[in-house]
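Loading example: each entry is read as four labelled lines plus one structure line.
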Amino acid sequence: MKKRQTKGNTKRRAPVQGRAKKTVQSILEATAQVLVKEGYAKTSTNKIAARAGVSIGTIYEYFPDKDAVVAALLNSIVFETVKRLQGRMASLIQEPLPLAAKQWLHAAVDLLGEHAGLARVVVEQIPRLQEIAAVQMIEKQMLAFARQMAVESGERYNRSNLDAGMFLVVTMVRAAVIGIALERPSHLSAEELIDELVNVMVGYYNYRPLRR
Amino acid sequence: MKKRQTKGNTKRRAPVQGRAKKTVQSILEATAQVLVKEGYAKTSTNKIAARAGVSIGTIYEYFPDKDAVVAALLNSIVFETVKRLQGRMASLIQEPLPLAAKQWLHAAVDLLGEHAGLARVVVEQIPRLQEIAAVQMIEKQMLAFARQMAVESGERYNRSNLDAGMFLVVTMVRAAVIGIALERPSHLSAEELIDELVNVMVGYYNYRPLRR
DNA sequence: AAAATATCTGAGCTACTATTCAGGTTCTAC
DNA sequence: GTAGAACCTGAATAGTAGCTCAGATATTTT
């Protein structure tokens, strides 16, 4: 079935003519649809080809394997969205931190919410998510925020618990954002959950343990 | 391949003789090994049977399908471990909360850490994890802690932000525990991460926003 | 318009997969 | 010791997976 060992031919043609670019685009769109409808495990290159209205061979003209198609889809969605939000993001740096954090969180929750069906599949079914470039990019932004909040919160941190704190903040905020966007109980609004999440963060950064 | 629709025959024999119980046990052990070695997607009933040294038919004598085998494995591990920790858990209720939380977190991190290889596969590759009884059981305990801490922390909460806070705490602590047990960078000890996690919680519960 | 290149097709190959079932073996109860 | 239940076997069924490749079609370059 697989031949993961003999990687050999990971390179494929890049589309150069207009029609080929459209073909690739339709493959990505079909991939999103099949993923949402069938889940990752039942998504096959044959189904993608059928839905895209292209022959199976065409997929392998541009992608070395199934995972490459999925990775390309995710990268295209995230990079496109990040580009759209870039302006808003840039202006955030000037604002007072809790407010900036709040807006960043809103943007992140919205991004996931817009593609909820796909995001659900991606988050809970796709293995090796961390290896995808687009995901790494977003986490890097989160880390920047976390570090800045820690720095501004003053002298409590030494080298070691700064690292620990940042690791936790990144891990926990990621989970919270995903939870708010995809698993939020209907009686809670994203708005109030984000407010409360900011409270968690501010509470933590303001907190001074009695003695260490 | 599958016939999820026509569920029909979900019932199988339960082992009654000693030899059958041993067989089932060896199937579960083999399942754990194959899962760790191959990952969920590449785990097949045939591989499990081969590793367990039983014929493929035997698996279907006791389990209706592949997922049932995996679910049985997880339930057996968690229930067994929970039973082992039951005494420790019970005595926790009396202790002051931050300390109790800390010990509970330690137990949870240890539990995952003891089965790290398997836990990694389970957490990142197994779909519909929430449906497994053993998982629900652990989350329920977590919720109990979160609620008690909120109650003891006094009058800040109204109905709505109490719910929001609990949702966040459960979501975030789950992610933190998994992260500490499975993705902890080597220069950070579980000990200090747990301490810092308790700080996050206590900081949050003590925090009083300026105005609402 | 011919040659070169890009694009696309789909039958076909191999390697699995989950699951069944007819029949054999071992145990337990009478 | 014999009937019947419990247990176990493994060839067989029917299906899907990923992926290749020889060749057809379309576009661009010369």
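Residues 1-2, 13, 15-17, 19-20, 23, 54-58, 61 of chain B lie near DNA strand D (CB under 10 Å from a C1').
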